[in-house]
């Protein structure tokens, strides 16, 4: 779904997690230098700026009205770039993305982080992160690629965030690299960390943070490793908690500010997980008639049934990914009258039967 630099598609509440680092930083300059691994000429100033980097003027300077309920405020990629520009200039730190990414913890990702770390294995964790990236930060796309014995967690821009593209790659790459190291544990390491741009002037800082080969001018920005790493069991795996975290996240992601009707509809359907609404009920929830919703979906090249099937397919695959084995149970959860109808639909969605799909998860 196309977006431009002026499309208001990024939840402001999510962007605040980039700049509100008080959860991760103690009011202690020595701790700040230790966590960033940087020698600062004036760590007190840096600490003060980091802690106070989200006053109202900071957002107003980017054309963002942050008064009132921030949960319903969205900003554009251009406004997001303006926020980063202010932070980089205030701190005089062109490598701010690396420093901030290294300070971030799982808690900065909120319920998305909880949903990710409670998955059964690393592959499922990354799959969850790719979905939430699409919801919380549409300018950046993440996906997994498998090529023989190698797996890649790829990041790419859906819309250019220049001149701060490196910032967004840096903050996400180091954050997810640290999460990988925390979850995989032991002596497991990646094959390399690749960036699609030339080595910046602060390339030496990359080598402090990534303890594996760092490569520049690569075809893709990605974390590369042995495909077997995806099977690493996560220490916090909890299927029930993962489901609850995902449901809570989707329930709290604002929908009214984005004019992307299919996205809004899918989020609405997620809220009704287990008892999906009819076209008319879903349309009413979105503030329109069923006829209007059908027309708007048609303009986007889709239908209500296609979007419902998309949500059902995603939830069914997640159920099996997490070890669920009852076709009857998942059929009822997804609103099918019986397991036979679900099995037919699942074969239509994936090209295989539920039993075959489950067998593939065991291999």
Q: Residue-averaged pLDDT, rounded?
A: 81
Assembly state: single chain
Tell me the strand percentage band: 5-15%
Strand order of the largest sheet: 3-4-7-5-6
SSE arrangement, N to C: EHHHHEHHHHEEHEHEEHHHHHHHH
Report how far apart the termini are.
34 Å
What is the tally of helical segments? 18
What is the radius of gyration computed over CA atoms, rounded to a whole number of angstroms?
Answer: 22 Å
Low-confidence stretches: 21-29, 40-47, 255-259
**Percent range for helical residues?**
40-55%
- Mind describing the biggest β-sheet? 5 strands, mixed
Structure description:
With 363 residues, the protein is of the alpha+beta class. The chain folds into three domains: 10-107, no CATH class; 115-231; 259-362, Arc Repressor Mutant, subunit A (Orthogonal Bundle), CATH 1.10.10.60. It has 18 helices and seven strands. It has a five-stranded mixed sheet. The chain starts with 9 loop residues before the first strand and ends with a helix.
């Amino acid at each position: 779904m196309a977006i431009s630099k002026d499309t208001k598609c990024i939840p402001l509440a999510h962007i605040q997690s980039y700049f509100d680092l008080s959860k991760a930083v103690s009011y202690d300059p020595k701790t700040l230098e230790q966590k960033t691994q940087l020698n600062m000429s004036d760590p007190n100033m840096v600490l003060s700026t980091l802690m106070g980097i989200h006053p109202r003027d900071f957002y107003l300077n980017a054309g963002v009205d942050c008064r009132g309920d921030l949960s319903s405020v969205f900003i554009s990629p251009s406004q997001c770039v303006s926020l980063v520009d202010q932070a980089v200039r205030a701190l005089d730190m062109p490598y701010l993305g690396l420093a901030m990414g290294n300070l971030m913890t799982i808690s900065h990702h909120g319920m998305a982080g909880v949903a990710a770390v409670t998955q059964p294995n690393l592959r499922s964790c990354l799959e969850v992160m790719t979905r939430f990236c699409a919801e919380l930060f549409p300018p950046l796309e993440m996906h997994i690629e498998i090529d023989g014995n190698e797996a890649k967690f790829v990041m790419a821009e859906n819309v250019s965030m220049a001149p701060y593209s490196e910032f967004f790659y840096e903050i996400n790459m180091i954050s997810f690299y640290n999460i990988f190291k925390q979850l995989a544990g032991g002596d497991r390491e990646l094959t390399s960390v690749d960036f699609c741009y030339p080595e910046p002037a602060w390339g030496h800082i990359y080598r402090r943070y990534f303890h594996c080969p760092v490569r520049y001018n690569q075809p893709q920005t990605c974390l590369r490793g042995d495909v077997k790493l995806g099977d690493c069991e996560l220490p916090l795996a909890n299927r029930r908690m993962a489901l609850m975290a995902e449901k809570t996240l989707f329930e709290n992601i604002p929908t009214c500010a984005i004019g992307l009707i299919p996205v809004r509809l899918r989020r609405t359907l997620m809220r009704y997980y287990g008892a999906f609404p009819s076209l008319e009920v879903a349309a009413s929830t979105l503030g329109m008639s069923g006829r209007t919703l059908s027309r708007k979906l048609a303009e986007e090249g889709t239908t209500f049934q296609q979007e419902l099937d998309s949500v059902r397919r995603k939830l069914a695959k997640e159920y099996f990914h997490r070890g669920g084995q009852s076709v009857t149970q998942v059929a009822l959860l997804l609103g099918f009258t019986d397991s036979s109808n679900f099995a037919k639909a699942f074969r239509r969605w994936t090209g295989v039967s539920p039993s075959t799909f489950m067998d593939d998860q065991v291999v």
